[in-house]
């Protein structure tokens, strides 16, 4: 593991403060970055007024949330209602403590040599999973304590989402543990000195990337928020800085899962080949490592934004079926294959790496084919379910029969909206008035 024997208490405190500042600044940049990229995708400029290239727009948005009126719902459990966003933010800030941002470096103007990492221990990756699991309690408690239906539904969805997709994420990380022989983040990075785990463990990488998007509630897996269904989900009853804390936690978690993917699959702070071979690895040492780490990190952030701008939200049943019937079984099968490979390599004294690459390619193809078949099967069976659920003798569907709105199942249709009927009747009434008066009212013009 990385050597922290020369770190003093002051050094550790300075590192912790710098990590917090780095995360807060990265969130401001990420919000601006997301709005600019999606704006370019949708052929609009995005933020371009406050500061050069609109860089200060995120800062002004944060100040606006800071001075907004802080409203507390009367029906809320006030202690839990206030505590929930704090839990989400604090757990999100803890993850970067074990992320190696670079190798050992010399602090400028001093004789201090220290790793660009706050701390590390033999089960650091399990610590990351534990922080992610506890952070979900903020979402669950925030929805439950709001005393409202939509936040409660969002928090329940978040619970199911974490149970299903965190299992797949944990199984994908087991592949890295088997190959690296350690759960220490610094040792995993060192094990990728010659080859990144992305290539031999490509199926596990695909599973992790899909799971990390479900873990941070981003499109197409933002079911706990689901603006088109639940208003804003678990954040509906929050305002001002309490809402901003949830918003902050979401973006910090995006940085967290991107940093974990960089550390476990993309070699961490190691330079990409062939740059790592120049001048005996000159560009793979010192402060260069921080540069490569940030490039990989923001590559994943661009991927988050790209998916949000191009992919629509899953239905909830599709979401759960995909997690339990596709990702988890496939991850279990891949671990079984990888364990067999390691057994042959260790005890049979055989170089089985070509076999592993072939198996990884076949498994990746099978995963993609499985996703396509599952999507087509779901689309083909939907008309059948609709026809099966249609019965002429059944009464008309009532969305408010149980006291709260329920979306229609396939084959059920909502009754016509009274408001839509009034709007449809307005043009006919207006036409009759124009024909009778011969002119339109000035205020309508």
Automatic annotation (TrEMBL):
Record membrane topology: Multi-pass membrane protein
One GO cellular component, as annotated: plasma membrane
UniProt GO BP: aerobic respiration
This enzyme's EC code(s): 7.1.1.-
Localization annotation: Cell membrane; Membrane
One function term, GO molecular function aspect: NADH dehydrogenase activity
Superkingdom per UniProt: Bacteria
InterPro entries xref list: NADH_UbQ_OxRdtase_su1/FPO, NADH_UbQ_OxRdtase_su1_CS
Catalytic reactions of this protein: a quinone + NADH + 5 H(+)(in) = a quinol + NAD(+) + 4 H(+)(out)
Bias (Low complexity) ranges: 423-433
Class of enzymatic activity (EC top level): translocase
Pro residues biased stretches: 405-418
Function: NDH-1 shuttles electrons from NADH, via FMN and iron-sulfur (Fe-S) centers, to quinones in the respiratory chain. The immediate electron acceptor for the enzyme in this species is believed to be ubiquinone. Couples the redox reaction to proton translocation (for every two electrons transferred, four hydrogen ions are translocated across the cytoplasmic membrane), and thus conserves the redox energy in a proton gradient. This subunit may bind ubiquinone.
Family affiliation: Belongs to the complex I subunit 1 family.
Protein name as annotated: NADH-quinone oxidoreductase subunit H
Organism: Jonesia denitrificans (strain ATCC 14870 / DSM 20603 / BCRC 15368 / CIP 55.134 / JCM 11481 / NBRC 15587 / NCTC 10816 / Prevot 55134) (Listeria denitrificans)
């Amino acid at each position: 593991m990385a050597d922290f024997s020369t770190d003093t208490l002051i050094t550790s405190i300075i590192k912790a403060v710098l990590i917090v500042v780095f995360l807060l600044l990265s969130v401001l940049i990420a919000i601006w970055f997301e709005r600019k990229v999606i704006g370019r995708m949708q052929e609009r400029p995005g933020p371009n007024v406050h500061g050069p290239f609109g860089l200060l727009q995120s800062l002004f948005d944060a100040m606006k949330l800071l001075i907004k009126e802080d409203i507390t719902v009367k029906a809320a459990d006030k202690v839990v209602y206030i505590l929930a966003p704090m839990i989400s933010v604090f757990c999100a800030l803890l993850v970067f403590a074990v992320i190696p941002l670079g190798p050992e470096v010399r602090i400028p103007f001093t004789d201090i040599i220290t790793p660009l990492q706050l701390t590390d221990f033999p089960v650091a990756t399990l610590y990351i999973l534990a922080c992610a699991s506890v952070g979900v309690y903020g979402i669950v408690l925030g929805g439950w304590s709001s005393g409202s239906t939509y936040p409660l539904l969002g928090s329940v969805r978040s619970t199911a989402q974490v149970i299903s997709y965190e299992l797949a994420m944990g199984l994908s990380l087991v592949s890295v543990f088997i190959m690296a022989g350690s759960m220490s983040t610094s040792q995993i990075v060192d094990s990728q000195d010659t080859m990144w785990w992305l290539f031999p463990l490509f199926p596990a990488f695909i599973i992790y990337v899909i799971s990390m998007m479900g873990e941070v509630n981003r499109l197409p897996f933002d079911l706990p928020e689901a603006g088109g269904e639940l208003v804003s989900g678990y954040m509906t009853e929050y305002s001002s800085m309490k809402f901003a804390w949830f918003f902050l936690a979401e973006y910090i978690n995006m940085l967290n899962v991107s940093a974990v993917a960089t550390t476990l699959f993309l070699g961490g702070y190691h330079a990409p080949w062939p740059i790592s071979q120049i001048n005996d690895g000159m560009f793979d040492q010192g402060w260069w490592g921080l540069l490569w780490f940030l490039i990989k990190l923001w590559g994943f952030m661009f991927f988050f934004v790209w998916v949000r701008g191009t992919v629509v939200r899953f239905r909830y049943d599709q979401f759960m079926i995909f997690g339990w019937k596709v990702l988890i079984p496939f991850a279990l099968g891949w671990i079984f294959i990888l364990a067999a490979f390691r057994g042959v390599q260790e005890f049979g004294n055989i170089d089985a790496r070509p076999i592993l690459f072939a198996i990884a390619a076949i498994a990746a193809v099978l995963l993609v084919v499985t996703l396509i078949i599952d999507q087509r099967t779901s689309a083909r069976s939907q008309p059948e379910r609709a026809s099966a659920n249609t019965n002429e003798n059944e009464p008309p569907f009532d969305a408010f029969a149980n006291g709260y709105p329920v979306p229609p199942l396939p084959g059920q249709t909502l009754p016509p909206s009274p408001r839509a009927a009034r709007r449809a009747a307005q043009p006919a009434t207006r036409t009759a008035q124009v024909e009778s008066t011969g002119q339109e009212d000035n205020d309508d013009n």
